[in-house]
Amino acid sequence: MATIYEVAKLAGVSPATVSRVFNGTKVSEDRERAVRKAAKSLQYTPNRTARSLRRQHSEVIALIIPDIENPYFTQMARGVEDVAQKAGYSVVLCNSDSSQEKEARYLDIAMSENMAGVIVAPATDKIDLSPLLNRNMHVVAVDRSTLSDIDCVMMANRHAGRAATQALLDAGYQRVACITGPASIETASERAEGWKDVLGADSAQVRDGHLIYSSYRVVGGREAMQQLLALDPAPDAVVAGNNLLGVGAIQVLTERGLTPPAFGVAVVGSLPFTTLTPAAVTVVRLPAGHMGTTAAQMLLERLRGDSQPARTVVLRNELVLADAAAVD
Amino acid sequence: MATIYEVAKLAGVSPATVSRVFNGTKVSEDRERAVRKAAKSLQYTPNRTARSLRRQHSEVIALIIPDIENPYFTQMARGVEDVAQKAGYSVVLCNSDSSQEKEARYLDIAMSENMAGVIVAPATDKIDLSPLLNRNMHVVAVDRSTLSDIDCVMMANRHAGRAATQALLDAGYQRVACITGPASIETASERAEGWKDVLGADSAQVRDGHLIYSSYRVVGGREAMQQLLALDPAPDAVVAGNNLLGVGAIQVLTERGLTPPAFGVAVVGSLPFTTLTPAAVTVVRLPAGHMGTTAAQMLLERLRGDSQPARTVVLRNELVLADAAAVD
DNA sequence: GTGAAAGCGCTAACAG
DNA sequence: CTGTTAGCGCTTTCAC
Question: Considering CB atoms only, which of A48, A78, A111 is closest to B45?
């Protein structure tokens, strides 16, 4: 691997000059030409490790998400990438797998690799960002808030829960149940709160176990839906707290011949790969990609030196009564 | 940020001893205790950048994929992660977005960040691995082969294409069309070859434009399906070359009231988030997760010094006539 | 505008 | 077993 010293020697200049050429500092035209030529002939690539060590930061942004298999998060990742790339940053995706431990490990890596910044969708509410913050690293939270005083971009979760529930009621369903994620996850409990808002805290549903906290996964949706169908009286509609829960619930319903609209379904979050009939399922679309771009923009501002107080931005969602399979 | 020098001073030992403690080299028990205590009180974290610079390699593996939004690849990523984690490596995911340029950029980063190795699903067949290989980096290809002489793990694509086509014929469909990805992508052309194998190169379908090369995306499936339905005579069944193509095709069919099995559909690749009726769609399941674990294992072997000739492993796929939504 | 030189934080000889 | 020391490749004052 060629170094600046070899390039310098070949070009007949000092290593400092080579460095300057690759960092945009002014260098006389002829020397620059010589350097570039030498660099090319030696296949020189700047060593980022050395550069980071010297500069104390790299040009890469860490994006830590709880579930790499959930399209919601990968769509968000796309958003982050799009804006980061344009600003000259690369983003590396880390899957915490909803594990606090793995998450801590990746946070540690981001720190000790001198990464430029991190965007994290916290796996739990116990995430500890203090080591990074003490080191003056920039971190922005997405999807879920943290205890730390940092920039944050979230969805209007409670509102989404309300909209989904109301849509089902408006469609004439009588007993609207709710399946959501782990109670310890903010998005899950907030969406459930939205459901309660509409039904009323003392309604029959809320009393009768029509609210199920499950895992944010397809299998969680399946199990919860089965539980709901075993109830007496059973619900005639359900609000699914996220996309995967929605898929699981619909799968079970379809298997039992209760394909929507025979049984009402509203899901919070898009169903990007579904093949369902249009208009059968209500979707409260969450702008995952937009969340990603917003978070990336906020991080970039910080990296550029912006030091205004921490901001929280809440993204509006969009009620879609029509085709659940529509492109997002 | 604390350094080993500060820890050394506080613990009353030399920096080398601190380094040894954090690298598993033998150190007397009392000194080790002193070092750990000092490290903890200073919140010391080893600086990976410095370590990589010195050691000339890091403990992270780069995984470069062409589409982060495709569950096929994220499932593969899960597989890679699972085995890498256990071996003490972290994996960072890079999305090349099917762009040769972005891919090159990430390859460059992997190289200049001294990463331990890379696993790449090539965006195009023109991928140039020589810079990495010249540097003696270990790279394994997944999903698609390269011109370089490296380890590679692939699916039995042609066989999958054959199986899908045959299943449709066995089910009684008469005119089986095929939608596949860009002809320049190996998996796409191979799966189409499988389709041709079954129908016969001089069959009516093959002559009549019943094979469409599209993009490996939902919208590509939609467009191709619309084209096929406009044909006269129109096909009565279709083989979709990958999961997203399958989703797009089924969406269009459903919109036109041709929900399978009214129109036959066989897809190469799983449909993890679909909500379709069981048994309506034939799926040739591709073991994406397994591909990931296999690739990671091969890479790890190389990192441990294995230098046997490059191997290519081809994974068997599995024909699933039943529930397309089944868990993989 | 350019070069010399001093590290960034760590590991790995090399002595002891 | 332990300390001293010389860099890994780069950027960046500081003089010229």
Answer: A111
